[in-house]
Specification:
It contains six helices and no strands. The chain folds into two domains: 82 residues, Tyrosine recombinase, N-terminal domain (DNA polymerase, domain 1, Orthogonal Bundle); 33 residues, no CATH class. The protein is elongated. With 147 residues, the chain is an all-alpha fold.
């Protein structure tokens, strides 16, 4: 039977920089790619430019909601905001696992699916003729391509 453990928060308020460097070291130990770590760094820099505290313990649900409103005010698309939230969720999850802060729940924004532009029938006809002339030269003279 699994026992419920009470985890105590660290009494000293760990600085944001120290906590994040611990996260980066954790990522390197897990052998994450350098581009993943670079993306974490970028999103963290964006967050810390906006965040006005030096300690991790101050991060809460209200902090995340305010940050989302800030990003929306900058005109970012919901997909871009969700990317930022995914990166921050991984960082804050690490902070929570190290008892630096309370768990912070992140809910992604609802996004509508954008309809991609389709080719017109004329464009499809041109593409078909070009492809057939490249890969199947004998089809150039067929009747269905003149259609």
């Amino acid at each position: 039977m699994k026992s419920n453990k009470i985890r105590m928060m660290q009494s000293d308020n760990i600085s944001i920089e120290t906590a994040f460097m611990g996260f980066i070291n954790h990522c390197k130990v897990k052998n994450l790619s350098s581009s993943t770590i670079k993306n974490y760094n970028y999103q963290w820099m964006q967050f810390t430019k906006w965040f006005d505290s030096d300690t991790v313990i101050c991060i809460s649900q209200d902090t995340i909601a305010s940050y989302i409103r800030y990003l929306q005010g900058k005109g970012l698309r919901p997909e871009s905001i969700n990317t930022a939230l995914r990166h921050l969720r991984a960082i804050f999850s690490y902070f929570n696992s190290q008892n630096y802060c309370q768990p912070v729940r992140m809910t992604l924004l609802k996004t509508g699916q954008r309809v991609k532009d389709c080719y017109t029938m004329d464009e499809l006809s041109i593409i078909t003729v070009k492809l057939c002339s490249i890969y199947i030269p004998e089809y150039i003279e067929t009747e269905w391509l003149k259609y």
